[in-house]
């Protein structure tokens, strides 16, 4: 079987890996460099933000994927020697007004959740802002160092002789199979490649290649700042009023993020920098004693309700999609890749597929 995958972000790379493991011949193409868009720009929290506020469809994918991450880490370490820094640092939600919902959700989903008052917060996180009055801590939520994960996946795919990775190769259109020919992709260079299946994993750009009514994915810009601290200064991820800190093992701390409808413009802005600096100060005041060392932006693949589209594209035989993971593409990726691969290969899906079917 021969499959063309459009887009080498986390979804394209992991889908390619699933298929390669099954012996499929894969051509994975990206219009730019491999893995430099949303999947690189993201924070790497291995959980939806405020997980109790999501639909069962997103929860099902994220729980499956969270359970799969440790094995992925172990396999990548063994096969390509790259540590993806899957770190169970926990996530602290500060001053949420729905702590009770969080507790109920945690109980129903067999997840540990601690509800903390102001004194306990100060004792455990002494640098936290003084107006932190209450918190909900999920100690089992992990983070992944997403740029390293992407690097490891590229190195892993390079080990398969039947996988072809093509950067700077934009696809201008995708066509379904007809009586006379298979599904195909047309490159902007004019080259046409036929395949048994074409899978669109083009993130925020996916609706440019597919009927928008079936796959209503739009770009939603997110900006991020990076600070430098001594390792161990901040020990957990912290979230307040929709903004968060992600402390890496080496002391780098990410502060994110914005949610902006700015079309396909993924430049950074002074307004967002100011907003994120204020957010960082409201989370951990000491962090902003030094200016941020880096500022970047990425385009999330926004979808209605954050539920991704994973399945066959209607009326385009042989064309499939795995896109629209919105704010949760990094956590959902192992499950999304498993599901699309099962569907394309005609295997019994490891997860119920119906909630993610493109619209008809
Ligand atoms: C600031 C920010 C913070 C985030 N934090 C988190 C987080 O903490 N946890 C989490 O789970 N998620 C997070 N996300 C969301 C997550 O990053 C995305 O949902 C995910 O990366 C989407 O992956 P993707 O592979 O679908 O898209 P992308 O990584 O954008 O990859 C799509 C690829 O397709 C290519 N492409 C597009 N069109 C074509 C074409 N015509 N031909 C060839 N190639 C094409 C693009 O060049 C791109 O490389 C965050 C996102 C942002 C921006």
Automatic annotation (TrEMBL):
UniProt domain FAD dependent oxidoreductase: residue ranges: 2-343
Pathway: Cofactor biosynthesis; thiamine diphosphate biosynthesis
Signal peptide (from-to): none
Gene Ontology molecular functions: glycine oxidase activity
Keywords of this entry: Oxidoreductase, Thiamine biosynthesis
A Pfam family per the record: DAO
Enzyme Commission code(s) on record: 1.4.3.19
Database matches in PANTHER family: GLYCINE OXIDASE (PTHR13847:SF289), SARCOSINE DEHYDROGENASE-RELATED (PTHR13847)
Protein name: Glycine oxidase ThiO
């Amino acid at each position: 079987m021969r499959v063309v995958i459009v887009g080498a972000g986390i979804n394209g790379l992991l889908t390619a890996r699933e298929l390669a493991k099954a012996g499929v011949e894969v051509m994975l193409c990206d219009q730019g460099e491999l893995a430099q868009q949303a999947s690189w720009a993201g924070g790497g929290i291995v959980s939806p933000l405020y997980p109790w506020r999501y639909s069962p469809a997103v929860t099902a994918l994220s729980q499956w994927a969270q359970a799969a991450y440790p094995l992925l880490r172990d396999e990548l370490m063994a096969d390509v020697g790259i540590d993806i820094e899957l770190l169970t640092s926990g996530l602290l939600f500060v001053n949420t007004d729905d702590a009770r919902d969080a507790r109920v959700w945690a109980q129903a989903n067999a997840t540990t959740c601690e509800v903390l008052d102001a004194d306990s917060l100060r004792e455990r996180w002494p640098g936290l802002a003084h107006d932190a009055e209450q918190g909900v801590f999920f100690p089992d939520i992990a983070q992944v160092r997403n740029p390293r994960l992407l690097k490891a996946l590229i190195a892993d795919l390079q080990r398969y002789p039947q996988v072809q990775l093509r950067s700077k190769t934009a696809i201008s259109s995708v066509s379904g199979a007809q009586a006379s020919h298979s599904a195909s992709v047309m490159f902007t260079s004019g080259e046409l490649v036929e395949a048994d299946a074409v899978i669109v994993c083009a993130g925020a750009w996916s609706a440019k290649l597919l009927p928008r009514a079936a796959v209503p994915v739009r770009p939603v810009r997110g900006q991020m700042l990076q600070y430098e601290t001594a390792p161990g200064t901040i020990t957990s991820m912290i979230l307040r009023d929709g903004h968060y800190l992600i402390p890496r093992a080496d002391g780098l701390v990410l502060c994110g993020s914005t949610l902006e409808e700015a079309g396909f413009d993924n430049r950074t802005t002074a307004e967002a920098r100011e907003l994120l600096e204020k957010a960082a100060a409201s989370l951990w005041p000491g962090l902003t004693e030094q200016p941020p060392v880096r500022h970047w932006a990425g385009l999330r693949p926004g979808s209605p309700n954050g539920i991704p589209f994973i399945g066959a594209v209607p009326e385009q035989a042989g064309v499939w999609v795995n896109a629209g993971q919105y704010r949760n593409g990094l956590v959902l990726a192992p499950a999304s890749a498993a599901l699309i691969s099962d569907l394309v290969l005609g295997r019994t899906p490891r997860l119920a597929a119906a909630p993610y079917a493109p619209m008809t």
